[in-house]
Amino acid sequence: TPTINNICCVGAGYVGGPTCAVIANKNPHIDVTVVDLSQARIDAWNSSHLPIYEPGLQDVVELPRDGSDVRRPNLFFSTDVRGAIARADLIFISVNTPTKTVGVGAGRASDIAYVEAAARQIAEVSTTDKIIVEKSTVPCGTAQSLRGIFEAIADPSVHFEVLSNPEFLAEGTAINDLLSPDRILIGSETTDEALRAACALADLYAAWIPRERIVTVNIWSSELAKLAANCLLAQRISSINSLSALCEATGANVDEISYAVGLDVRIGSKFLKASIGFGGSCFKKDVLNLVYMAETLHLPEVARYWKSVVDINDWQKDRFTGRIVSALNNTLADKKIAVLGLAYKRNTGDTRESPAIGCISQLIAENANVALYDPKVTNTQILRDLTLENGHESVNRHVTYCEDPYTACENAAALVILTEWDEFKTDKLLHVPPLNLGRTHILAPEPEPVAERASTASSVASSQSETASNDEVPQPNEDAGTPLTSVAGSPEPDFAEN
Ligand code: NAD
How many CA atoms within 13 Å lie on the side-chain side of 178? Predict the structure, then answer.
């Protein structure tokens, strides 16, 4: 088995940063360098204001010593991509793989341009053998393309072994997911060299993860398993959301449906909370990636089946905003609407694909005055997201960012809760004196109706969102079963991501 003394991770994002911080933490004898093209991102990783919010992240990156925090001595963040690649025995490729916006497969296929650029750079710089690990979520077959790149442009005396090791962490619970994952998946070829490389990677994880949870499979299975996992998780969310519409039409209660069907061990309780729909950078793009793969493999029925998961999600988002409008006499002109929660789920500051963005944009289009608050999403971040969709002038005219939820809610005609932050459901907010809330409508789910009836229900309800495992995408919340005109209690959506 090759000895690993030095690791490089290309891409210091939501996956590369936390994953390598945990690997460095658990393998103190190995130097781990996370590199990125973005100077700002690297500067933030090297500061006390990390670029992403993730519970427990600071403790993994820093080493408490004499009361003051000091960086781990074997974890580095740098923009010296070439230097870190040259020194490494093992390289994680953890760059972004967004949906293509132009060209063949635009709107569905994953763009692996960043993966390819990283591979080219590795091929150009390497003078010693490397184990290359695909950490990014990629279309099935990418490992083969990477091999082609190394064969075409690298020094022929250097050996590259390509492995697949997809990441299943969910934002908001990333550190817990990394510390005790359900499984580590490693895909490789079956040559002796490939199996030895897979063994070296497995050893890194075995520093803290029981061997039986480290699963080795063929490389195509590994690439496809990651997509399959996200598709199945997204499908559950769309399934319960489609049932929420049936509940509204019949008088059934979607929380009761979730509880009742979730007790069936074949179904299970996680990811069954109705909401405004999933968000996050992964679910939609990964489902669309699978749709595109099915299309190119001439499997149109398969493509249609999975595409409907995304279609229901879009429909659910529109349906929610439509109900806000109809609850307020079909006009929002000059009405103040308080929006609490902008992140795509709780415990993250990430707004990528957050349903909040589309919802607020529709409120702006209705000429509402929108007052926003989120505990972790910054003013700059949300204004950037909204400006991209609506233009500077419109955002300036219609949107105010508030530093606390009470200011956002003051004299609002409606209160729209879009992220299931604990502070919105447990704390003071819903006990604000009636004076402040006045005739405000709170657009959120009923407070756990099932819990009122079944003594075991409240723990079941909370475990849905807390243990919703890896890769969930969040569902900014809403219980579509609650009449929007009622004043209701805490939302408890089942958010998560990828
Ligand atoms: P991200 O956008 O947060 O981070 C990617 C980083 O890679 C960026 O900082 C970018 O500047 C950098 N980068 C791009 N090309 C580079 C290059 N050639 N050299 C150096 N740096 C480069 O993305 P992310 O959320 O961390 O996701 C990364 C991958 O992991 C994606 O494929 C995603 O699908 C997958 N994934 C994400 C999650 C999640 O929860 N975000 C979970 C599991 C898997």
Answer: 26
